[in-house]
């Protein structure tokens, strides 16, 4: 089946269940990603992304096009590569002494599903601890996941958008990734 | 060299070459700073482009006072205290937008864009006890120079142009990065750090930290950009004390006046694609102007006490408490025809690369400032040293005290102003 199913919350249209095996693959990838970021395994994290993938933390929570506006993060593969280098090479004092993080990703709602791609929304609550202080970072996530023909090991993130609840206010400068 | 800085009056805590660590940590000093500096000085509140037409507004702060900056029906820019004259509620909680006026949510007193009280519901209860003309939103003196809008709570403050003094020349130069067009605000990053506001004020005129704190950013940019920022040992790179607490730090002096261009400097190879795209609709001199200014001007102009015009963006500080400060990094670009959209897209990506809570520069700065605040909590009378380059400081032909770009000339300028204002009770 290559047809794309769109999940709607309107009456009369059945939601896409998270038990759909294609959705389950996407959820697995989102959770794997979350754990890699908490472990600061940035090289492995980078490997989850498609070469044409984008990683975005917008300021404006309402938009889907990010080219003509200022974002907190708007990474293509080149920027992601440099960001991972920055986070791992030991020169960046913010990354060297970064907060420890634990994040929970839940409230998954599939948006569209086909045999090749899943778009799935979720909620992320992250606690960052550094020097006696806990900061809360709450966000809505949207992942566009490309499903590989040869199985889940090849699934990749084509786009991840992290919409912080306080993206338009002042947030702490961070030495970790969302 | 390591004498402590002690004294009973605030002004005693600042000497030419050092200041007391208490300046970062003493809550009483912070309270005095709010009244003697932030409620008396000109405070930057907006850029002209943020208020494009009558009814445009922006919410911000003058010191700790919440204000709304508006463009009224006649086009005059006003700064209004965001506080209803009835029972004190804020009349606006939106960061910016377009309105006809402001209505208090509590009892619906309504105000015009110029702050005048327009309407009061059920007015019969106010017969004989209320004069609308006496109950406008409080207006702050508001003046602008070169598109930079400032407000002050001090009715007796000197005119803005006098306050800016020789900094005006550098504001004029800064605006040339529009490449023949005015500049406009493209977006803003907001972030907080747990440290005193003066740590940030110092940082924008601190060339000394750049290759150390920003080594990670330097490693991530192309060789041309890294080379452009390699000012550490170049004697041509200088910092001038411009008076009134203002200073200018020239990292790339050949870009201080962007109109001075003999055509010999090649455009950076990283912009080849952009040049090709622009060349389809813009003549070569026009393309060269905007592309040569992609990294902004070659200097940081530090305006005491709350705004820096920093290469290609504005950095605005807002003190929250003695140990917490909020910063905005405001991206700017040419306000030109749609053909220049590609320029602004590229400028946004450059801004994102360094600035903001997840940039390759800002988090490292913030970590450094956080560490200063934590360390300065020890031995509050021990000095914070601002003496680098003191022995080699000389007047420039214009008469400005001048040091190397890595010297602490700009910090001494700011602390000189701090000392004068804090000693003036």
From TrEMBL, chain A:
Keyword Oxidoreductase applies: yes
InterPro entries: NTF2-like_dom_sf (IPR032710), Rng_hydr_dOase-bsu (IPR000391)
Extent of the signal sequence: none
Family: Belongs to the bacterial ring-hydroxylating dioxygenase beta subunit family.
This protein's UniProt keywords: Dioxygenase, Oxidoreductase
GO molecular function annotations of the record: dioxygenase activity
Pfam families xref list: Ring_hydroxyl_B
UniProt-recorded name of the protein: 3-phenylpropionate/cinnamic acid dioxygenase, small subunit
Source species taxonomy: Bacteria, Bacillati, Actinomycetota, Actinomycetes, Pseudonocardiales
Biological process according to GO: 3-phenylpropionate catabolic process
SUPFAM superfamilies on file: NTF2-like
Organism (species): Pseudonocardia ammonioxydans
Automatic annotation (TrEMBL), chain B:
Entry keywords, A to Z: 2Fe-2S, Iron, Iron-sulfur, Metal-binding, NAD, Oxidoreductase
Keyword Isomerase: no
Coiled coil residues, start to end: none
GO molecular function: 2 iron, 2 sulfur cluster binding; iron ion binding; monooxygenase activity; oxidoreductase activity, acting on paired donors, with incorporation or reduction of molecular oxygen
Location of the Rieske domain: 42-151
Cofactor requirement: Fe cation
Keyword Iron: yes
Parts of the chain that traverse the membrane: none
Signal peptide: none
CDD domains named among the record's database cross-references: RHO_alpha_C_AntDO-like, Rieske_RO_Alpha_N
Origin: domain of life: Bacteria
Protein name: Ring hydroxylating alpha subunit (Catalytic domain)
Species annotation: Pseudonocardia ammonioxydans
